[in-house]
Amino acid sequence: MEIMWDTELYCLVGDPINFSLSPIIHNYIFKILNRNSVYLAFNIEEKKLKKTINTFKSLNVKGFNVTIPHKKKIIKYLDEISPEAEKIGAVNTVKNQNGKFIGYNTDGHGFIKTFKDNNIALQGKNILLIGAGGAANSIASSLLMEDVKKLYISNRSKKNANSLKERISPLNIETEIEIVNIKYLDKNSIDIIINSTPIGMYPMENKTPLDITGFTKNTIVYDIIYKPKNTQLLKDAKTNGLTTFNGKSMLLNQAILSQNIWFNTEKKINFKNFKEIEGVLAAYVE
Ligand code: NAP
Fold first, then answer.
1. What is the pTM of this model?
2. What gap in Å lies between CA 70 and CA 43, rounded to an integer?
3. In the prediction, which pLDDT does 265 show?
4. Would you say the CB of residue 225 lies under 6 angstroms from ligand 1?
5. What is the mean pLDDT of residues 104-129?
């Protein structure tokens, strides 16, 4: 693709954005879709966020992604947000619709899609979610919207676990939510374990957020870390014969879902394309 006068600009805003894989993923998708578009990442401090969004409007930026720490703060600078982003309380995708900036959230869906693509039902399941940060927030909201039976939240700071519980509880009053200390958890009752902490990635590669022994063989372990692709938690789970997923599919799915929002009537990314992008990413996340 040649950059021309009419090349459309898509962006990422975050702080820090160093080592983000989003430019690689999105520019590769543009190539597949044969779009005259380019995706660039910008490191934007919070105090410059408002000015950046106004500049994006003046430049007619067609869409952008938002990453830590701006997913909540961005909302006040947008013209509208989708009902789902409103429920989650965070935006990671913005579309320029006839000059208006509309916010969406694809993080939770990107996570849930891994289960859908693998025909694993979430409804009625007991889930252990480790962590209560930004990613946990989107994941927990989406799990409640999928009618899980019970959500156990384990987090280093009890205060953050409590505020997550308080925020998501109204999304589905049928789902029971309990804040737990993993030490005292009845491991037999857990169907799915999700790690949404950075324990397992640099500089904590040799650490695991929990001892995997004692869980049943049917337990599924999903570590949303994608680098390294085999965290200590996933290595232990595999050794114990459990089914595992790493964060690569979530990362790719949320990017593809962002593109579907930007170009909703156009050619979609298929399974073959998905595998192709996964291959490209392998050089960066092995
Ligand atoms: P975040 O908002 O900073 O939240 C981090 C969470 O991990 C908090 O609950 C924090 O607990 C906990 N935590 C951090 N360090 C810890 C430690 N040393 N021991 C115990 N708990 C610790 O970060 P985030 O945006 O949610 O991201 C979390 C992880 O998910 C990162 O590894 C990120 O790379 C990954 N991620 C992956 C994807 C994907 O697409 N696959 C998307 C987003 C994020 P406190 O509440 O006590 O601080």
1. 0.92
2. 11
3. 64
4. yes
5. 96
